[in-house]
Design brief:
By secondary structure, the chain is an alpha/beta fold. The protein is built from 11 helices and 12 strands. It is globular, with a radius of gyration of 21 Å. The structure holds ligand PBG and zinc ion. Ligand PBG binds next to helix 6.
């Protein structure tokens, strides 16, 4: 970009001199319609257990989930991502395929209560359901166990079908398995669900920022880490390849996760692809803001809105965020 004229003809402060003028030339608008709220669902009754590392986020039993959704709806939030808090785990994550388990149960309940006035997205992965905490079933690889990509795919498809049959509007596979989008698309289409969109966790990095979530969902890997399937935070070009493959396989929406340390990835994916783009403002990003605010070191409202705005400015259309309710209140000036 070339600037033909300079000071004193050009004065950038001219456009910053009053709040109304600054408002007029605002480039990025944050709206409650941009938010997707993740909710943690747990078996039981009357459970509303605050998550220690994620203040104002709760593990919710289905009855309390309904109240939480109702209060979010009253703030203008209509899209939700449901996450399972396990009460039993095994090596294959079999409860992920049980239509009587808590996520399908919660989906049916919410559908009954709210009809189609809310939009329900399900996180499709096995790490919350397996006792080893990895994102699929394991098989020996060299001198250790590793996620068996191809053997996990049919199970992942089955998990999506269980959720869709129970009322999920959209599936969001988060396991970073090769070929997962293709397998799910085919599996959904074969069972009469060609209308269900797939939100791919397309560029998901192996990240320390998931720490509080793993406490919340009780899903840390019991050995090793997720470096064998999630991406290396040092890589940018690889994110483009990952995303291009998901587009080719039939993803309807794309995602970058985490958000805050990956704004360059959000920006570049927005430039290269035309699909709607979601950013996941993850648990660790949330926890840092809450902790610093609690210490009185930052202004929570100001910093939260700044972060969410920066994610949109980078190019995200939608943001999955635990800040959704408080941000919705602030945007309404409540
Ligand atoms: C996997 C899943 C994770 C998150 C969302 N879905 C955990 C992981 O990949 O380890 C993390 C979200 C967060 O940290 O807020 N089911
Ligand atoms: Zn997983």
């Amino acid at each position: 970009m070339t600037v033909n004229a300079g000071f004193p003809a050009v004065r950038m402060r001219r456009l910053r001199q009053s709040p109304l003028l600054r408002e007029l030339i605002t480039e990025t608008e944050l709206s409650v319609k941009d938010f997707i709220l993740p909710l943690f669902v747990k078996t039981g009754q009357k459970i509303r257990q605050e998550i220690a590392s994620m203040p104002s986020c709760y593990q919710l039993s289905p009855d309390c989930l309904i109240d939480e959704v109702r209060s979010a709806v009253s703030l203008g939030i209509h899209s939700f991502s449901l996450i399972w808090i396990p009460d039993r785990k095994d090596p294959e994550g079999r409860s992920a395929l049980d239509p009587e388990e808590i996520i399908p149960t919660a989906l049916r309940l919410l559908r009954k209560e709210f009809g189609h006035s809310i939009y329900l997205i399900t996180d499709e992965c096995f790490c919350e359901y397996t006792d080893h905490g990895h994102c699929g079933i394991m098989s020996p690889h060299q001198d250790r166990l590793d996620v068996d990509n191809d053997a996990t795919l049919p199970l992942l498809v089955e998990q999506c079908l269980v959720h869709v049959r129970a009322g999920a509007d959209m599936v969001a596979p988060s396991g970073m398995l090769d070929g997962m989008i293709q397998a799910i698309r085919k599996g959904l289409d074969n069972q009469g669900f060609s209308h269900i969109p797939i939100l791919s966790y397309s560029a998901k990095y192996a990240s320390g920022f998931y720490g509080p979530f793993r406490d919340a969902a009780e899903s840390p890997p019991q050995f090793g880490d997720r470096g064998g399937y999630q991406m290396n935070c040092a890589n940018r070009r690889e994110a483009i390849r990952e995303t291009a493959l998901d587009v080719m396989e039939g993803a309807d929406l794309l995602m970058v996760k985490p958000a805050l340390s990956y704004l360059d990835i959000i920006y570049q994916i927005r430039e290269e692809f035309q699909l709607p783009l979601v950013a996941y403002n993850v648990s660790g990003e949330y926890a840092m803001v809450k902790a610093a605010a609690k210490m009185g070191w930052i202004d929570e409202k100001r910093v939260t809105l700044e972060i969410l705005k920066s994610i949109k400015r980078a190019g995200a259309d939608l943001i999955i965020t635990y800040h959704a309710q408080s941000a919705a209140r602030w945007l309404k000036d409540l």
